[in-house]
């Protein structure tokens, strides 16, 4: 396993194709899924030389959490689909690497049990909790209480899902439910009937900023909004007292044909103007990808599918190796860029190609991409 793509290939060879499709897939034509990765390939790095440093500093402080690197685990549902230990394995690997893990509300191990497993290692759990605000306020409050009691140190509220994205691979494959024996453990006992069932997770098309105001009054944990794309919404989030933003298009799984997150980053960062941290996810597969996002103003990046692939390939050990690999690539890229600290990563390191054919992987027709072959 030398690259993230090696994990992807190995995972696909091991997994039920229906589950592999659930992980890799996106909404509709998957134009945004492809655009996310392609955008990184289009940007260039222009390094500085003779600024040597024997070691690089990769650690960060983010919303009261400390991490050994600016790569965090974005929330992904259903880890037991790919490994019998599920989120326990992922969380142990994240803790061993000193990385922040955002636990999905749709985890197949309860958030309290995940936190216990990390504490049992003697590690200081850096767990954040991802929340879909539920139409039933009491259910949302119970979920927040469960996450808070578990020791989670931030709430990541996903706001790009008023309705569930149309994963046509899942529809074609008839994948609508977890297999017998697996359930969303955070939802157990929250409603009569289907105990911990996926269908207990309701999408709330009625969500608006007042819900965020309510949440702000309800919890003292830092609130991160995940899935904000428009710079105007970034400004509104700051005004509503949000503590951080996760610039994300849900890995292309919600609204198809939205731009790559990397492409939106400069304008987004300008709108936020340093008032709160901006994290980016979507298509991060290489240390160079992380460096490009950090240079353009992200405080950290998140990875989604790579974690699922590594977990499928090798369980806890697989995720450990994935995180080591990305850490090594990040360190190596910093060295090659003449950077010894993350603060040395500035926009001048990054360039948009100004002539010639578009480098990097092909993008499907219709993909919105400012970086491709554009003369600026
Ligand atoms: C299998 C899978 C499950 C996901 N589950 C969730 C989830 O439960 N909640 C959420 O907010 N985002 C979820 N996401 C989106 C990720 O948090 C993240 O935004 C996305 O995967 C990042 O793009 P990448 O996969 O290209 O790294 C999921 C993504 C995948 C691939
Ligand atoms: C709706 C969730 C259960 C999972 C999710 O967000 C996703 O698969 O992208």
TrEMBL record:
Keywords, in A-Z order: Flavoprotein, FMN, Oxidoreductase
Residues that, per the record, bind glyoxylate: 132, 250, 253
Domain spans labelled FMN hydroxy acid dehydrogenase: 1-355
UniProt record similarity statement: Belongs to the FMN-dependent alpha-hydroxy acid dehydrogenase family.
N-terminal signal peptide: none
InterPro entries: Aldolase_TIM, Alpha-hydoxy_acid_DH_FMN, FMN-dep_DH, FMN_HAD, FMN_hydac_DH_AS
Name of the featured protein: Alpha-hydroxy-acid oxidizing protein
Short name of one Pfam family: FMN_dh
Keyword tRNA-binding included in the entry's annotation: no
Binding residues annotated for FMN, in chain numbering: 75-77, 104, 130, 158, 226, 248, 281-285, 304-305
Species this chain originates from: Streptomyces ferrugineus
GO molecular function, one term: FMN binding
Active site as annotated: 250 (proton acceptor)
Cofactors required: FMN
